[in-house]
Amino acid sequence: MGSREANSTIKGFMYQMLKSFYEILNLTDDATLQLEGVIEDIDITTAMSTSAIQCKYYESQDYSISKVAPAILEMYSNYCYSQPLGKDIKYKLYAYFGSQNQNIQIDEIKQFILDTKNKDIIIKYLSKIFIIDDIDIVKLIEKSKKTEDDKTEIKKYIEKNKSVLKFKYDLKDFWNVFEYEEAVEYDKLKANIINELELLYGPEIAENLYFGNGISLIANYSTFSDAEKRIIDKKTFFELLNKQKSILFTRWAKYLYDYKVMVKNKKSSMRSKMNFNSSVRLIYFSKQFLNNNSNQILPFLISYIDKFNTKKSLNKPPIVIFEESDNLLNEIVYNLFGRGIYCNVGIVCNIFDSEMFITNKGVSADFKIKLTTNSNANNEIVNKMNIDQAYYVGNFSSPVYDINNCEIEILDLENIIDLRTVFSL
Prior knowledge:
The chain is of the alpha/beta class. It is 49% helix and 16% strand. The chain is built from 18 helices and 14 strands.
């Protein structure tokens, strides 16, 4: 994928998140919104109905029916599936093109259905909207895993007969619950969201804090594999948004803001947190960050200990967890020991002892740091250590652990120098 195509793809994802953000801001009290919905990109449900919204953003492309027809046919096939179940669903295609088209006519879709020879479209959608009497073809359509020969047979049948095949449910009836909305341009949608946030929080922090964190929260929810966990309501969203007092340093925030300014601002916001000497802190390093900065992890940890953990009576030893990096961990523990810095690694006779790691039983009273890997530290163990602050260093879409009563920071930093800056080392 070229850089232009990659940037276009990222902007498409961002646009979907912007639309999700806008819809959350305008939810009614009885409504919920599902990100990456079961039906479409965004599913909005109330006590009375469901609205399914699909987003398309083609900033550098002109409108053509071939670009929107697959999305419409996907909705139409869902409509055919949902009708026997008595589901009341309204469908919306929210699409932006470099040159906009004012309306999509039903006859354009009918003609596209007759003209298309695209195998994927025929298999995915046309096979689901037509009444098919041929038992052998129906059996092929119903197979969960189709061979290329199966697909070829289905395609041949539908191409030969689609001029006389009848729709399962009238296309006109679907058209009554379908809406094509010309989307606003990216920057305009972003401005609309920020304007609404300014009414709630004021102009100074609406864009610089709440807008970016809102996008990061939406991105986080979108990654959950469990569909139920991707459901959110307006009240819950704002409760989460209001808890976060500094910018979430995620890949999506980095797309929205100037990176160097973000590092500087994060350093300022972290300074007050690091002044709490009695806080128990977890620093979790991603495998990729460790690989990219392996030679600098040891100096970073030594600097951290020198600054924050020289007085045991005032400071709690940090808990450091490496993701899938046992060899690097052993090397660092060996080098720390050589410098007179004792570690609690929770290892007895080459076996991880969770009680030792949690309670420090049998560990030198002078230890300065707890070190282990994610293969040893599960969610239960981590929650027994009364962690106050957790820092995930690397590209994380969401926290690894579900820690009770803990401040969470995701620091998707580019290098160890920026990590030192953030921690004022």
